[in-house]
Amino acid sequence: MPGYFNFFPVLNYSNKLSTNILVKIKFDQSIQNNLAIFYPYTIQQGERADQISERYYGDPTYDWIIYLSNNIVDPYYDWPKNIEEFNEFLIAKYVNLDYAKSKIAFFRVNYLNSESLISPSSYESINSGTKKYFAPVFGYNENIVSYKRKKMDLAIETNKIINLSINSSNGTFTEGEMLYQNTNRGMIEYANSTNLIISKVLGSFSNGSIVGQESSASAVLYNQNLISQSIPDSEASFWEAVDYYTYENEVNESKFNIKILDSSYLNKIVKDVRDLLS
Fold this sequence. Notes:
Layout: E1 10-13, E2 16-19, H1 29-32, E3 38-42, H2 49-57, H3 63-69, H4 75-78, H5 83-94, H6 97-102, E4 104-109, H7 120-125, E5 134-138, E6 144-149, E7 155-156, E8 160-170, E9 178-181, E10 184-191, E11 195-202, E12 208-212, E13 218-229, E14 239-243, H8 244-254, E15 257-261, H9 266-277
Antiparallel strand pairs: 1-2, 3-15, 4-7, 4-14, 5-6, 8-11, 8-13, 9-10, 9-12, 10-11, 12-13
Helix pairs in contact: 2-3
């Protein structure tokens, strides 16, 4: 069976006949939304689209059907990476794995990490500003029997921005690097010899020594002023910081779950693509 690009039109480019690979196609939306002709599939570590095509369609060259079924435009970036490829990707993008794990990407509501229930009386006693993070659980006769964490897919770039006044600097701090004071940390947004502006703050900085993760620059913090705050301290426990390693891993893991076109529809799809490109 010919591969995907065999269907593409040929054009004359610089007096040479060439396949017009710039043509783009996709399944009709009604086909994409018809769950009856697809079934879910979990890609195994290291498994390729041509291997899946061979297994389900008896021909490895139908790998393009799998790509189109899942809106995969660039197999290099959109296909899930195995563990070795994923680590290599992170090192190329973030220098090393430890840095990817330490640098905060964003903050999001952590309802997925909390399955505990609270009683109606406990709900009534909590801070009014935190009640929005809970949803009622109904029992017999529509009575509220408890409260659980509400599904809230909310994310923000930073929780707060702080201006730090420093002196006794040793070295030059770099914008974009993480600033540390023991286990407390924050990302430097702006730096000069007397002030640092940090965001994505974890913990609480106090007067004393601070150090930059990448530059290894150090200084003495003697004063700080809160510039803005997106997450009140009273609500901080309902949010979590997501580092770049976690974020990239979640994106990669989501790519393992794809859908496979039922083989009985294969000939129709091939015909439609051939007719479309002819």
